[in-house]
Amino acid sequence: MKKVFLLLIPTLFLTSCMYFRNPLVPVSEALIDEELTGLWCSPDNPDKPEFQISNAGNNQYLFSELDDNPKLSEINSNDKDFTRAYSVQFDGNKYLMITNNKADTYLTVKYEINDENVYFTGLNESFFENAVIENKLSGNVSTEKVLGVDSKHIEITSKTNELQKFFKENKDSLFNTDEKTTYKKFADYIQKFSKSDTWHSDSPDVICKMISEIKIYSISRDKKTIHAEIFHVMTPFSPVICIKVELKLKGDKYVFAFTDPWNNKAFGWFKYTDDGAQFFIDCKKFDKNGKNCARLYGTEPSTLRDTTLDKDFVKREIDGEQKEFWKY
Question: Which of 137, 154, 228, 254 sits CB 3.0–4.6 Å from 131 for a disulfide?
Answer without folding.
Answer: 137
